[in-house]
Each structure stands twice: as structure tokens, then as C-alpha cells.
Write a structure and sequence with these properties.
Length: 138
């Protein structure tokens, strides 16, 4: 676990944390790696109307579990040690200016859960097709 740099409590109920996983890679130079994460509860109402449209919808919902994780990695390589704090601050500022307003939108949790659910459903369909092609089908 990295050092927590910042925590945001958003209006839509999400909590995000920025953790520092930066490391020295050569001499006085660093690779910056900041991981921004937050858990989003999977609420049944987020998927109203969608479950019936997808043959593997219920299975996808089970695989998602009770929550999904928003995750964003911000990196920059070759940062001189004396500019480490300044550069991390600038990168977090860009995130706050450009991504945070989108993530803070009231509909973001629902849209994000739906997106992850669709991705999992697609993975399941792909698995089932592979099984059928290999002769291991139902």
C-alpha cells in the first residue's frame, strides 16, 4: 500500500484516494506512479431493465459482487528528485481539473457499474463461445 496523498469525498457519495507508488529508478531520477481508487456499490437499481436484455446478465451481476473499483493510474517517468513533490502536485491538479468533475457527477456511479457489468457479461459470452467451439459446451 502506498502513502495516501489525498482523499476526496464526492457529492455523489464516492470516496476516492490518491496513493503514491513512485520509485527511484536511477540516480536522482524517479518514476512517478499515483494510483487513484474508489469503491462503488453495485446497487440493483443501477441495472434495472438491463438484466433481462442480457442472457448472462444474472451471472455477470454475481461476478461483479457487491462493489466495483474505479481505478486510474497517473504516471510520469524521469522526474528529477528535486521536482518530485511539485510534479505530483501538478498531476493531481490536472486530475482534479479534468477528471474529477466527471466522476463527481450524480450519474457516474450508475454509469460506471453498468459499464463494468457490460464488460463482465461480454467476458462471459466470450468464455461460453470458446467452450462451445472446443466441444465443452452445455
Amino acid at each position: 500500500m502506498g502513502k495516501v496523498l489525498k482523499r476526496w469525498e464526492l457529492q455523489n457519495g464516492l470516496t476516492l484516494e490518491a496513493e503514491d507508488f513512485s520509485y527511484n529508478y536511477y540516480g536522482e531520477y524517479w518514476n512517478i506512479k499515483v494510483m487513484i481508487r474508489g469503491k462503488i456499490e453495485v446497487r440493483p437499481e443501477y441495472l434495472n431493465g438491463l438484466l433481462a436484455e442480457e442472457p448472462y446478465g444474472e451471472e455477470a451481476l454475481r461476478r461483479l459482487g457487491g462493489e466495483v473499483e474505479y481505478r486510474r493510474e497517473i504516471t510520469q517517468v524521469g522526474v528529477p528528485e528535486e521536482r518530485l513533490g511539485e510534479t505530483i502536485g501538478r498531476l493531481l491538479g490536472y486530475f482534479e481539473e479534468n477528471a474529477l468533475p466527471y466522476i463527481d457527477h450524480p450519474s457516474f456511479p450508475e454509469r460506471f457499474v453498468q459499464k463494468r457489468w457490460r464488460e463482465v457479461a461480454k467476458e462471459i459470452r466470450t468464455e461460453k463461445m470458446r467452450e462451445e467451439l472446443q466441444g465443452n459446451g452445455p
